[in-house]
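Lab manual, section 2.4: Encoding a predicted structure.

Procedure: take the sequence of the chain (370 residues), apply the prediction step described in section 2.3, and record the output as structure tokens. A sample record is shown.
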Amino acid sequence: MTLPALDGILTPADAQALAAGILPASVERFVDGAAGAGLTLDANRTALDRLHLVPRVLTDVSTTSTAATLLGAPTTLPAAVAPMAYQKAVHPMGELGAARAASAAGIPFTACTFSSTPIEDITATGVTTWFQLYWLRDRGLTRDLLARVEAAGVQALMLTVDTPRMGRRLADLRAGFTLPAGVTAAHFALGADGLPAGGRDGVSAVAAQTAHLVDPSLSWADLEWLHAQTTLPLVLKGVLDSQDADRAAEGAVAGLVVSNHGGRQLDGALAAADALPYVVEAVADRCQVLLDSGIRSGTDILKALALGADGVLLGRPVLWGLAAGGEAAVRRVLGLFQEELEHALALAGCPGPAAAARLRLGRALGGGVR
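Recorded output:
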């Protein structure tokens, strides 16, 4: 049964408005904030908003399906929940609420290295689980973590490659952001004396923890070591350059995520949707390509498919739902993505996601139709 407060959620943006009235200001800034002046955060939306779909007509869409296959797993729509850290900061259910909602929606859930819930508890929900890995300074700790996630039943490994250090997230720095009491990185046994503290101007506790644990020396050579440690399909998250995409596709990767970390890393980086066609062309069907950063509706998913993506990652809207009403609100948000995508597919003359690849796109800025 839908909770009364959730009846008014008709778009993911409605969940954002509800979340804004619930979250402490510091946590809301942590979720919705960006690096620098927020140029890339804004560019992600501008890039998607200026794309206009050219519908096909006289196509039988009496039966329209949103089903897809991502990294070998059948899904009810071409999407997965993006990796996002410390979800208990927005709701006590944390990752468990989001994972259960993803399971009910029939899409994969990507658990984060800096999850506030242990991976074993997440996979126990029955959701198809991928695991996002940050490259740790301690190789032994990385090896132990890989063994742990494999034992827990994780089905794919997503290595973040765009975070040799955390972006300068000015709102967090100015506030001296620190996580709410009781919210910790569940995969690490670290004493308070082992990490720099936040709580004062100019220091973000999350940035300090990232600097303490994450190794900035990650390079192409390290991928060979990583392949030797795990049998899981490997996905690289944070690729924007077509040359990097080509080199990655030459190796044994199952997928690439075109992402600028939601505008939270290099401010001024290219919008993910603008990079996507070049990455798709460079990959040339050698692995799957997913789009992350800025997806806010089912129509955005359709645009990503028309640009050549196999699917998308859903990030902030999931956290908005979690903050607005726990698992029930995340279910509502994910259900809206499916409803909106099915509606958009039908109106665009596509009986399913695969047909979206034949759609053409017009650009509101600069004109023309591709």
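Check your result against the sample. Residues 316-347 form the longest helix (32 residues).
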